[in-house]
Amino acid sequence: MIYQIPWIYTPVRSVLAVWHQLTKTEMPELSKGSVMMRDRRRVEETIRAMRRAGAGRLQVISDFDMTLSRFAHNGRRVPTTHNILDNRLLIDEECTIKMKELLNTYYPIEIDASRSAKEKLPHMVEWWTKVHELLIEQRIRKDMLARAVKESRTMLRDGYKAFFDGLYESRVPLLIFSAGVGDVLEEVIRQNHVFHANVHVISNYMDFDHTGVLRAFKGQLIHTFNKREGAVTQAAALSQLQGRPNVLLLGDSLGDLTMADGVSDPRHVLTVGFLNDQVEERKESYVNAFDVVLVRDETMDVPNAILRNVISSGDRK
Questions:
Q1: Within 10 Å of residue 104's Cβ, how many Cβ atoms?
Q2: Which of 118, 166, 187, 266 is the most buried (most CB within 10 A)?
Q3: pLDDT tens per residue across span 98-140
Q4: CA distance 64 to 202
Q5: Closest CA to 66 of 183, 176, 204
Q6: CATH 3.30.70.600 applies to domain 35-75+155-312
Q7: Is 86 a catalytic site residue?
Q8: In 3-state terms, what secondary structure has residue 317?
Q9: Residue 65 among the catalytic residues
C-alpha cells in the first residue's frame, strides 16, 4: 500500500522549483544564431559553478588578433598586429609584397583542418621567423608605432569597452596571450582607452637599440601553436593570477586551447572559440574542442553575458 503525504510532498516540490529558479542560467545570448555548443547543459553548469565561486576566483585568458580584435568589418579584413606594421611609415613596398607572399603561403596551413597541430608547428615557426627577419631589416622606429596604429583600420570587437571595463571594475585579471606583436597590441588597447591595471600581456616584443630602432625580437618566439610553453613558464609566474582556479578562455585557433595550461590547480575552465573563417571546413573540430563556438560573430556579446552572470554573485574581492 502506498501512502500519499501531501503536507510533505508539496513543500518539497516548491523548494525544488525555487532551487531551479535560483540556479538556472538566464543567458539569452547563448541562443543567438551564431552560437554553437556540443553540450549546453555542461556550459550552463560551469557558469553556475563559476558564479558560486565569485569574481575573486576568476581569471580571463584571451588571444588578441581575431579574438579581441575583429576579423572583418564591412567585408574587409581587419589588420592583425603584424599587419598594422604594413605602413609606409615603417616598411617599404618590397617588404609588404614579401609579407603578403608569406601570408598566402602559411595562413592556409594554419587553418587547414586536415593537418594536426604537430604537422603545422614547423611551418608556423618558419612563418613567424621570416616575418620578424623582414621587419628587423626595415629598421622600424619605435616612435612611429603609435601613428601607424592610429592610421590603421584595426578595430576591437563590438562590446570591447564593457568587456575590459567590467573586468577592471570587478578586479578580475585579464591575461592577453598573443602570437602577434606586443608593442603594437598594447598601443591598440591604449588608443581604445582600455589598458587598465588588471591587463597583463604575453607576446612577441620588439627590442629597440638606444636610438629607438628595431634590432631584434625579445625572448622566445610565440606563435599560434606553442602557447602552452609560454603558459607554463611565463603565465604561471604572474602572482596576480594565483588563487584564481576558474578560467574563461577566449581564442580563435585550436592552438589557443593550451593558454590555460599554466593555471595552478584549475577548477572550472570554460572555453569560447571564435570561428571566423572557413566555417564549414572547421566547424566540427571547433565544436568538439571549444565549449562555446561563435560563428562569424564580431561582437563580445556572449563573453560579456558570461561575465555578467559570473560576476553577478557580488563577490568582488
A1: 9
A2: 187
A3: 999 999 999 999 989 899 989 999 999 999 999 999 999 999 9
A4: 10
A5: 176
A6: no
A7: no
A8: coil
A9: yes
